[in-house]
Amino acid sequence: MTGSRPLGAVTRGTTGHNRLRRSDRWLVHSARVRTALQSAADPLVVDLGYGALPVTTLELAMRLRQVRSDVRVLGLEIDPHRVDVARAAAGPGVDFALGGFELAGHRPVLVRAFNVLRQYPLDAVPDAWAAMRDGLAPGGLIVDGTCDELGRRCCWVLLDARAAVSLTLACDPFAIERPSDLAERLPKVLIHHNVPGQPIHALLTAADRAWASSAAHGVFGPRVRWRAMMEMLAAQGLPVTTPRRPLRDGVLTVPWSAVAPV
Hints:
Number of helices: 8
CATH topology of the domain at 21-174 and 240-256: Rossmann fold
Order of helices and strands: HHEHEHEEHEEEHHHE
GO molecular function, one term: methyltransferase activity
Oligomer: single chain
Structural class: alpha/beta
Number of strands: 8
Keywords: Methyltransferase, Transferase
Protein name: Class I SAM-dependent methyltransferase
InterPro entries: SAM-dependent_MTases_sf
Organism: Mycolicibacterium obuense
Distance between the termini: 38 Å
């Protein structure tokens, strides 16, 4: 930690076991994230704003060890009491400290900031992104995301040191009626832009139409139906990344340029 005050404000701090499992699974299998971790001189990961309990930080460390066994995860919180509570759970490769968007002077290769900026005003996002980018190690990445209380509906933006890279929507396909149910969990940078004429609205509308057209696949389960929806979107020319293997999660990733507000 530098001598300066942590940058940011205390958030509600709600958390829970396995709440971020879908984003963790995505991180483990993302080629971009795996490359960043495996090539880093120091595999330091920051979990920013982990909340009242450190459970999701500990889970993140456990899952990222599948990518690199010597990964180090540092949980940062602005509330000193939360840091004191979390330190009781610290162990090999996992630590906790006081810090905010300035990353407490550390240079991580990956920053996860989940359910943090959702609680800030929209005009705070650019400065928060810039502060985190300034602290990244070379080749570093940031995940800015939001999810519901049980982690069944999640959305996140992947950023590098220069710009936003992609948007990912992820869900338990059994827990939605249509893809646009995820709109309420869009990251702060997008949630106010889900209106006609904006790219994110067009994407969700196209996904709902493809989901409806794929209804016949529902007899095989919602996961099969989600995959059929993805294949239909790709056939329509939308730049979705279709998974190469069956997934338990419904995941839809597009380049940031496909959803950036206009």
